[in-house]
Amino acid sequence: MNMRNSKKVDQTTPYAIYGFFRSFRESLNDDSDFSDFISTLTITPMKAVVENVLPFFRRSSDPSLLTNFQVMIRQAEQNSDFESTFMRVCDAIDMLEKVEMALRSDRRLMDGYLKAMQFDNASASHQQVWSGLQRFLNEECDLATKRRMERVFAEQKASDELGLNEDVLATAHALIGDDGLYIQLLETLQLNNRQNLPWETVITRIQRIIETNKPRVWPMLRKFLDEVHSGRGIDELEYNLYWEYIENEYAEYAEEENETLYIEQKLANIALDPEKDSVSVVEPQQTQDQRKQQREVLGAV
Q1: Residue 123 pLDDT > 80
Q2: What percent of the chain has pLDDT over 70?
Q3: Shared domain check, 242 and 180
Q4: Is the pLDDT of residue 279 over 50?
Q5: N or C: which end of the chain has fewer CB within 10 A?
Q6: In Å, how far are 142, 150, 163, 272 from 156, measured between CA atoms?
Q7: Number of domains within the chain
Q8: Which domain holds residue 31?
Q9: Rounded Cα–Cα distance for residues 294 and 301 (Å)
């Protein structure tokens, strides 16, 4: 949501600050410009920051964002608490964009998340933030939203602790095709990394989890995990092969689902008559109506 029409009082909230960063990113043609902008902000004193980032605003499609930025920087120079809030949002911008996607761009939920995480309270303890986050997930989010959020958190931890990039994470998730199993996979990898266990021990634990629930995906997932673990890197051709497999799996799954649905529909039309000890096929109402109309037309001829 574009924040340029926000009232001045709103520009001090974590949601308004996040809204500015999101709008500025969307106004740039090259995402690397936004990355450089964020890097410049983090290393430049507040008094010099406007001058240093002016070239980025010249490449923006929305000139009004510079005015919004200047207002926030002046506020940051005058208020150390606001400066802290501004920089905390800045430092977390990539994570916050993933959270917003998980929340389906719901403004109320995004504002609630930022408040739960206490971005405007630098003195909040870890326990306070954790308690606030759990209340938000359990009281404000439905089960599907909560699961998407859990996936975001698991991926962030896996990225920080294991150095897994977005291509690896996206491919692993698609190979498994189940959020719950995917989160278990990432948590198992992190736990075993902390315990410094041998790879074969780690992979055996993962195998038990996957084969118990989705055994057909295990051979390709095992191959992928071994390649990631080897550290030699996966090139574009190899990624393409994995995604071709994933697309074929989805196509086969969809075909199986359609066949199952067809059979279920047929079975739903079968009626048992215990008194006559017989089985009959019950036509859907639509088919019955069509046949009735046909009989009426024929009778009129």
Answers
A1: yes
A2: 80
A3: yes
A4: no
A5: C
A6: 21, 10, 10, 55
A7: 3
A8: 8-141
A9: 11
Q: Is the pLDDT reported for residue 274 higher than 60?
A: no
Question: Does residue 1 belong to any structural domain of this protein?
Answer: no
Q: Based on the domain organization, do 215 and 232 belong to the same domain?
A: yes
Mean pLDDT of all residues in 219-243: 91
**3 in any annotated domain:** no
Q: Which residue has the tokens 């010099």?
A: 48
| Domain annotation covers residue 147 | no
**Predicted confidence band of residue 115 (pLDDT cuts 50, 70, 90):** very high
Whether residues 186 and 71 share a domain: the answer is no
213 has a pLDDT exceeding 80 = yes
Classify residue 295: in a domain, yes or no: yes
What value does the mean pLDDT take over residues 59-72?
95
